[in-house]
Amino acid sequence: MPKGCKYGTHRVIEPKGVLPQPAWKIDNTMEIYDNEILIDVHTLNIDSASFTQIEQETGGDEGKIAQKMLEIVSQRGKHHNPVTGSGGMLVGTVREIGKDLQGKIDLKVGDKIATLVSLSLTPLVINRIKEIRKEIDQVDIDGQAILFESGIYAKLPDDMPETLALAVLDVAGAPAQTAKLVKPGDTVFIIGAGGKSGMLCLHEAKKRAGVTGKVIGMGHSEASCKRILELGLADVMIQGSATEPVDVLKKVEEVTDGELADITINCVNIPNTEMASILATKDKGLVYFFSMATSFTAAALGAEGIGKDVTMIIGNGYTKGHAEISLNVLRENPKLREVFEKLYA
Amino acid sequence: MPKGCKYGTHRVIEPKGVLPQPAWKIDNTMEIYDNEILIDVHTLNIDSASFTQIEQETGGDEGKIAQKMLEIVSQRGKHHNPVTGSGGMLVGTVREIGKDLQGKIDLKVGDKIATLVSLSLTPLVINRIKEIRKEIDQVDIDGQAILFESGIYAKLPDDMPETLALAVLDVAGAPAQTAKLVKPGDTVFIIGAGGKSGMLCLHEAKKRAGVTGKVIGMGHSEASCKRILELGLADVMIQGSATEPVDVLKKVEEVTDGELADITINCVNIPNTEMASILATKDKGLVYFFSMATSFTAAALGAEGIGKDVTMIIGNGYTKGHAEISLNVLRENPKLREVFEKLYA
Ligand SMILES: NC(=O)c1ccc[n+]([C@@H]2O[C@H](COP(=O)([O-])OP(=O)(O)OC[C@H]3O[C@@H](n4cnc5c(N)ncnc54)[C@H](OP(=O)(O)O)[C@@H]3O)[C@@H](O)[C@H]2O)c1
Ligand SMILES: NC(=O)c1ccc[n+]([C@@H]2O[C@H](COP(=O)([O-])OP(=O)(O)OC[C@H]3O[C@@H](n4cnc5c(N)ncnc54)[C@H](OP(=O)(O)O)[C@@H]3O)[C@@H](O)[C@H]2O)c1
């Protein structure tokens, strides 16, 4: 096969001229171009917002979830949820490396890798769905996928189980960005703190804000609030719903003496939490939206609507060193690793 | 009437507990609470993305545009386009000031103001549509609107016509943010450079990037490219479509010796331009999305999908001093003012 575009545009079927991510449909023929990598897929880690949507649509029935997933892939050539627009990631074994890439990358046939690009742009074929682990959004399949030349990946570390590494790598962008954004002395507010990305962000926030800073977590369930306090990940926990902005504002005012947060990090997996994030942040502060359920217009117009001068950042799933930074959180924090092993491995 | 919530939650009809912007429907009864302001509306400046959508849906027929606008307001109590999620702004005369605000704000009955909060959260009643100026997305009406206590506004300046000020204030956030983000020596790439916000951003970018910087504009039509070069607003102009990312990348590479842009500012009024913005920006660079047609997931997953470490900012319509900064662009640049007068006044 010839050499394809490094970004994978050669596989876009419709609409023409766009990249594989925004494309409606891509070509999932499992014969690789000279600069592609073929992967035997073991496990899909469906993006939390996407999996939640599919569960709701199917009433949580496993047979129907499987059917919906097969339907998405057969329609689009990729697991790109048409409602949430999001994907997820996968773990698999390298089956074949295109000849233009051989010797140029640090991979060989047989290596176990996690792809760090979204499933929403990854050519995928599912032959069979073997097991659905609903609590952790993971689905074991028999299938294959293709990685483009620009696609990033991580070799799976040998000091932790595969499912654990996968859970962490799925949300690697969030703790890595937190590490870059939080400065000593900052008041940091993390919404959805009890989830996967939330807990990793708490760890980085506490490390970076230091003793002069303050880390406030917000959990939805009592269980997650309790867990976080026991882990010592947050200085203060707030329990409530991020879909109720005025209530969130009041609670954040209380625990910050009315000062509000320098940085708010949104890690929830449900829509309509933009306003709570904006209201909880001080003027000239920063809101980092990692949640894929964020609406661009709701954020832009919401901030304007209340005359709030905050910088709002779209959570880029990638930032340099994100795989290393996030896996390292678990190495630094054995208690957190224990919780992750219990919950996600 | 009693005192309402400063953010206007007392007017939210459904869903309960949210703010007026994300609300589906708000109460547009034109009797004010003690901390609200009643405005007699002269002109609506419909957000460009919203107006373009309505024009397309109605085939551009003026009667049908009017009907669609009335329908939106009667359904939602505000001019909140259900497809684009965006609003616009308005100009009117202060009719009544709630008693809690009297003497506390710099407004009196009879003052002419532009509201600087989105129409997507402003209680509005349209009694009659008087004139639709399709080329500039402005609609004269007989109607009334309400401003909440947290709502921001600008008194109309007396050194320029009302429609001109309105056109500038509508997009005030963009040049003000450009002024804050661009540093001397930066290579700045502005997509949708020929539009209202685009031209204002070009002026600020050139001023801030200085002689050591480089300002590259991208226009869609030949006319707008020519106009910008004549105005001396950009160092280089690229003509093309921002929906074709690979083509845009090639052109930006050419004019930057492969270095790409430090900052890309997206001012288009159409969807599917996220990838062009991301591809044109260098690693560690910054993408500022002012366009309301931006999709959060397309940006987040698109950047991740090609492993690009860029910071992506959601264009907050408000930033401190934005009205002053944007109106001042026209005072600083008489040639640009002439063009604005011809096009938008
Ligand atoms: N930007 C990117 O590149 C990228 C990449 C991967 C994932 N994501 C997104 O990141 C988000 C989080 O992912 P995750 O895997 O960390 O999710 P997760 O483990 O499922 O955690 C979600 C958290 O949201 C909380 N939550 C749910 N409803 C809430 C409410 N009404 N108020 C406050 N909190 C609420 C839950 O709290 P309780 O535990 O207390 O119930 C839970 O802890 C998702 O939206 C996902 O799509 C983004
Ligand atoms: N974030 C906020 O708070 C906020 C507030 C107000 C407005 N906005 C948004 O800002 C955006 C711009 O508003 P505006 O009033 O400046 O719009 P505008 O005057 O209508 O300009 C839009 C520009 O987009 C260009 N364009 C159209 N299709 C294109 C394509 N395929 N490739 C490249 N360029 C293309 C047009 O180029 P030509 O002139 O060459 O045809 C035009 O110059 C809109 O999306 C609006 O919704 C945001």
Automatic annotation (TrEMBL), chains A, B:
Residues 204-292 form the Alcohol dehydrogenase-like C-terminal domain. It is an enzyme of class 1 (oxidoreductase). Belongs to the zinc-containing alcohol dehydrogenase family. This is L-erythro-3,5-diaminohexanoate dehydrogenase. PANTHER family: NAD-DEPENDENT ALCOHOL DEHYDROGENASE. Its cofactor is Zn(2+). It comes from Koleobacter methoxysyntrophicus. The keyword Metal-binding applies. Residues 10-157 form the L-erythro-3,5-diaminohexanoate dehydrogenase N-terminal domain. Its EC number is 1.4.1.11. GO terms for molecular function: L-erythro-3,5-diaminohexanoate dehydrogenase activity; metal ion binding. Keywords: Metal-binding, Oxidoreductase, Zinc. It comes from the Bacteria. The keyword Metal-binding applies. Gene3D superfamilies: Medium-chain alcohol dehydrogenases, catalytic domain.
